[in-house]
Each structure stands twice: as structure tokens, then as C-alpha cells.
Amino acid sequence: MGAVYRIILADDHQILRAGLKDLIEKDKAFKVVGQAKDGDELLSLMGSVKCDLVIMDLSMPNRDGMQAIQDVRVKFPKVKILVLTMQKDQEHFKHAMAHGASGYVLKEDAYDQLLMAVKMILRGKRFVSPTISKLLTDYYVRSLDEAESSSLDILTKREQQILQFIGNGMANKNIASRLKLSVRTVETHRANLGRKLGIKNTAGLVKYAVTKGLS
Amino acid sequence: MGAVYRIILADDHQILRAGLKDLIEKDKAFKVVGQAKDGDELLSLMGSVKCDLVIMDLSMPNRDGMQAIQDVRVKFPKVKILVLTMQKDQEHFKHAMAHGASGYVLKEDAYDQLLMAVKMILRGKRFVSPTISKLLTDYYVRSLDEAESSSLDILTKREQQILQFIGNGMANKNIASRLKLSVRTVETHRANLGRKLGIKNTAGLVKYAVTKGLS
DNA sequence: TTATACCTGCGTAATTCTACCTAGCCTTCT
DNA sequence: AGAAGGCTAGGTAGAATTACGCAGGTATAA
Known about the structure:
The structure is a homodimer of 215-residue chains. Chain A has 2 domains: 5-132, Response regulator (Rossmann fold); 150-211, Arc Repressor Mutant, subunit A, CATH 1.10.10.10. Chain A has 10 helices and 6 strands. Helices cover 55% and strands 13% of the residues of chain A. Chain A has helices at residues 14-24, 39-48, 65-75, 90-99, 111-122, 130-150, 157-167, 172-179, 183-197, 202-211; strands spanning 5-10, 30-36, 53-56, 80-85, 103-106, 127-128.
């Protein structure tokens, strides 16, 4: 049945908050029970007003959004967080989500995206703006470009295979028995890998393998 | 001006090829100059018929799609590859793109997605189906969940710091000198890391650090 | 038919890591 | 004040990796 969900808005632009409140409350299932113009205000407001969801910007004075997310998560673990921001880059997104946000929507997105995000989050799901989703994929594909152009192709098949096992955290001995080779052979391959890639230690090779997606 | 782009289709379903040819050639800018029912046929066909783009499935008999991509890339580096498949998972996508595909579209996608992919690829861009894009983001967000819930928080600050250096491919000696600690101290921390995380070897720790984003 | 590159493997010595343990010093919480 | 956890560092022993070189067999290309 129709419980009314209580929402708090946090953004340093009063106009945006006002407009947003108006839009959101067109759906009778939602009620904006408070507004804050910065992180400090948000935290103190939440001390006195209960809510189910916070919709917040990342760029705010006095305790910026990223910090606010962490603080809210610690002090009010049950309250969901939806980030609504103009920050359209991987870093902000990753940090926000890693710090505990449940959703990430851009101010340039259509309003129905925000509405969908709110509904999904209140149902316990996460929501990521398709714009951001596409952005992440672009980053990923670009990283593949770099990976391809750089150096994987100077490795022989055997070397790539060995590298893959290294990347999976296997010791030379294990690799040798898996491939039915002498440990010495594996060592030779590993040495060649190190020489070709200019990496001396195991750790570097593993990192290389993992970042190249060989794992 | 309007050069006609030459396209070859590779898929083991004849019906699909026929329908696809029909759809594609509705745009007079494209001409399907050949069809193959498997990887071998594709490669031999390309030896005699020039083309700008190959649209291919991944699951084909006689030299599967993944292998075919690599072979095409080696023997005909100028020909672009668009994967059209029902494989809707991260692994197939990653491998296909890593092996040199320029685009990835699902058979369940709307046709205009395929058309857009073809056009973008022929303009030198890459194209990834939004469905896949969303899938990748979901994987990413889920991995954040695991990272958060699992174990990073049972590590002390110093341990996280050490883990980060390990993840960056540094040997104990280097970490020690960087942090102005004894090698033995670093070893102790590393041992504790291994114990807490249940990971025995360096490689595993590096992999852990990298996948947790500590690098 | 030479080259060339690749895969395989060994020798030796030095370096590094692992696996146990102990232990002093510090801060924080009770 | 006492307990607990964290940071530092050492001892000892053994396991593993690294560095350097060497070399035979095979496949592929010039």
C-alpha cells in the first residue's frame, strides 16, 4: 500500500531545490520533508527530521558532498543517498558510489531518469544514469585501445598464457604443474616477460596482467 | 561523397544473413558483397573479395568468432569488425573488444542500433550496445558492493597503505624505503595482510589490491 | 638453406619472500 | 590502571624468485 516516502534535498542552489520539490511532490507517494544548502546543514537537519532518502549534490560549501555521503552513511545507515550533480566524470561517480551512494543522476538528464532512480533506490536497488553508464564503457574501450597498442602483442602466446596465470595469483611451481612444464621453463618465460615489459618483480607483472584484463 | 561501403556477413544462420542483407541494403550506401557461414569460410572469402566491414557472430563452427576476429585483424588490418551476437555477458564482450572488434551489438537490440554501429564504425569510431554498457556498469556497481561488504574495513590504515604499494607492484624493499620502515616491518604487515585476507602469495595480494581499486 | 624466433630446460649464486615466533612502545577504550 | 589493538622490528629457517648465461629442438620466414 501507499506509504509516503520522506525525502530531504541538499543542494546549494535554492532555485533548484524549489523546482525539484515541486516536481517530486507531484507524485503523492513522495514528500520533501526538508532542505539543506550544504553538508553541515544536511547532517544537523537529519538529526531532527526523519527521512528515507537524501537527494544531494556533490559540490556544496561546508563539508562537500563526498564527505557528507560518508557521514550520512555512518550516522544514518538506513537512509539511502541519491547523488544529483553536474559532475560527469568517472572519478566523481566512482568515489560517490564507493562511499555508499545508491544512485547517480546528472542534472542534465531528463526528469524521468531522476524519478526512476528514486523509485528504484527506495525499492532497494541501485541506479546509474545511462549517460554515466555510457561514459564508463567509453573509458573502458579506450583503455583497451591503449592496452592493445602498447605491448601485449609483443608477447608470444606462451608468454601471454604464463602472464595470465601469474595474474591469477599462481606461483611458478603451480603454473609449471598446470602446464606440465619444468619450473625452470616457467622461470625463463617469466624472465623474458620481465625483460620485454620492463617489469622486474612479480607484483609488477600481476598488476600488469590484471590491468590488461588477463585475469 | 557517397562511396558505397562493402560489407561481409558471417553467421551460421542463413535466414539471419538473408534478412540482414535485406535490411542493410535498404540504405544505398551499403552493399553486402559476401556471406560466410563460419570462420574458415569468412577468411577464405576475404582473400578474394574486398570489403570495409565484417559483421559477424561469435558462435560459429569451424574457427569460432573469437579466433576469427584475431585472424581477420592480422591478415586484413584495415577491415573493421562488428560483432553481432546473442552473447550478453561481460566475458564475451571483453574478449571480443580486446581481440580487436570495433563494435558489439546484440541480436536482441533494435535494428537502428546496428545501423548506428555500422555508421560509427565506418567513421572510425567504436560502438557498444547500450544494453552491454548498462551490463558493465551493473557489474561494476556490484563489485563495489562486494568490495564494501567484504574485507577492506578489517585492515588497519597501515595495512591498507602497504597493500596499496603492493598493488602498485613494489617490492618489500622499496616499500620499506619509501615509508622509511624496516623491511621486516613491511614483511610483518604483509604477513598480517595475508592472514586477514586469506591470501598466501604476493600475486594474490596484488590482484586483490588492484581489483579493490587500491592502485 | 640459412636465419630467426619460440619453446623448452639446466647451473649457480644472490636476493627476496614466507612462516613461524617474540617483543617493546604507543594510543585508545574500559 | 589495565587491556587491547596497532606499529615497529628482530631471529631463524626454509622456500621461492631473480639474474646471468647456455643450449638443443622446432617451426616459420627470407
